Amino acid sequence: MSRPVSSASNNQNNAQQNIFKVMLLGDSGVGKTCLLVRFKDDTFLSGSFIATVGIDFRNKTIVINDKQVKLQIYDTAGQERFRSVTHSYYRDANALLLLYDVASIISFNNVRVWLSDINEYAHSDVVVMLIANKVDKTSERVVTREMGEKLASEYDVTHIETSAKTGLNVEFCFKAIGQALLQQVDSTVSNGESPSKTLNNLVQLNDQSHKHTLCCSFS
């Protein structure tokens, strides 16, 4: 039996709303909650704060191609003792955002463990995005962009760099995920590509746009 990729509801204006479940995964301290808060409220959680315990949950509705898309975003605890709890949520997820901290080689090395869990517990058609977070920490960085891209290529997942502190690519990540999932259920925007392929193309276009902007700023 194939799983539904989204559900739909009608608001007061009778407009259809697509609903997708998105999970944030990764070691404790990689910035999952900060990434979510930056996207949801456009603020940064500075200073010390309590680590997520179990599962936290937030909604945000965005508009893509003139269509309402509601993202149900699950922020998961990264500690080992909570893994069995989060595993039960994998199968209902439409997309998984797997984070590591570019200033932590341990969090990067543990990406393989997380990807193994995804392979075991998630559906085969789940959309996965590998996120290199905290790229603002340039002086402390130990994981290069090339290392991240090589690992992503090995597992055939999309790779992108973000900073919850500066906001770099944060909103884009969630909107790209929404657009990729929307094409899966909406024949008017489908182009025959898989959601994962669409996501990868969107990220490549975004990278090219950033490079062009950078080049122009120095011309």
Automatic annotation (TrEMBL):
Indicate whether Lipoprotein appears among the record's keywords: yes
Pfam families with a match to the protein in the record: Ras
Single GO MF annotation: GTPase activity
- Which positions carry the signal peptide feature in this UniProt record? none
Keyword hit for Nucleotide-binding: yes
Q: Which PANTHER family match?
A: LD44762P
Protein name listed in UniProt: Uncharacterized protein
Q: List keywords of the entry alphabetically.
A: GTP-binding, Lipoprotein, Nucleotide-binding, Prenylation
Homology family: Belongs to the small GTPase superfamily. Rab family.
Q: Which residues form a coiled coil?
A: none
